[in-house]
Amino acid sequence: MEARLSAVDALAQLSFLVQGILERRAGERDLSIIQIRLLGVLRDRTPTMNELARLLDLDKSSVTGLVDRAQRRGLVERVPSATDRRAVLVSLTDHGRALAAEGAASFAADVRLLLERLPPADRDALSELVSRLLVAHAADHGIDLFPAIRPAG
Amino acid sequence: MEARLSAVDALAQLSFLVQGILERRAGERDLSIIQIRLLGVLRDRTPTMNELARLLDLDKSSVTGLVDRAQRRGLVERVPSATDRRAVLVSLTDHGRALAAEGAASFAADVRLLLERLPPADRDALSELVSRLLVAHAADHGIDLFPAIRPAG
DNA sequence: CCATTTAGTTGGTGGCACGTACTAATTTAG
DNA sequence: CTAAATTAGTACGTGCCACCAACTAAATGG
């Protein structure tokens, strides 16, 4: 009855569960996980293709295709860089931004529903612990979790 | 400095982080996430193609291809069912079992490394909370998290 | 027995990711 | 100030993965 998963198993299972929720909600809008990640990253940035590849941890040739498909659907735009004639900036369109917001909202609702299985105090403790873990990890890897709050300087 | 993510953002970020670790470690053995999931599911089951589709939440035609590729690499076997001449049972080969174990071990090592960013007490609290969340969620959905411990009867 | 349902495969389509090879622009060296 | 090296991005070919629709064969049940 009171079976307990190992920490490793628990995190693995949880990640599949959360990804499943994300996938379902994204799928309702005909978006894949990677498209959602793309829109998410672009919410507070207008990176070059190259920076996008780093942010998404993809090969730059993968990003070409990804942005192609998103652009074909009117979710993002390619804008020539003003300072480097080789470079291309990628930015969200209004439609892309709207879709990203919708998806985020319904995903958030699902996750809140999931979290309601825990008493409020536990819920809060969990998110606090995960937050601390992520912040520590990000710091160690020189990643800025909050580009909108504290833009890279 | 002490920025705090929302519970929803925290879980989303964490799931991407954990999936990334899994993907990297699986990739070292030329396995994809779905192949790893396949091997994981087969560790304590020998389901039919159909049951496999339910377990992995895939279309049965997707499972055909998935098992094809795994079989071509000698990771799984197709065994005709003794009781239903239409049905096919899928089981791990020794090679598949070994690969799954290796992958699980190096993934576990990575996750433990990640968790070491938290003090031991927090680490334990986190895994306890996540465990409770998963158990509650599984119970609500009639999913058995522990088929090896308590086989479906 | 014949109609229906079920298990699994096949074939077609599209998304996604990679490596390689390429063009064009920029930077660096001499 | 050019020639070489680097960088940004794309094009193309390959393979994996997922779906749907159509199909065969076996089981089920009137």
Summarize the structure.
Two copies of one chain form a homodimer. Chain A is mainly alpha-helical.
Keywords for this structure?
homodimer; 153 residues; mainly alpha; two-stranded antiparallel ribbon; 6 helices; 2 strands; disordered C terminus; DNA-binding
Overview of this protein structure:
The structure is a homodimer of 153-residue chains. Chain A is mainly alpha-helical. Chain A is 63% helix and 7% strand. The first copy, chain A, has helices at residues 7-28, 33-42, 49-56, 60-72, 94-115, 120-140; strands at residues 76-80, 88-92. Chain A has a two-stranded antiparallel ribbon. In chain A, a hairpin with a 7-residue loop joins β1 and β2 (88-92). In chain A, α1 crosses α5. The first copy, chain A, is elongated and about 60 Å long. Chain A starts with 6 loop residues before the first helix and ends in a 13-residue tail after the last helix. Mean pLDDT of chain A is 89; it is low at 148-153. Chains A and B meet through α1, α5 and α6 of A and α1, α5 and α6 of B. Chain A binds a DNA duplex (30 and 30 nucleotides) through α4.
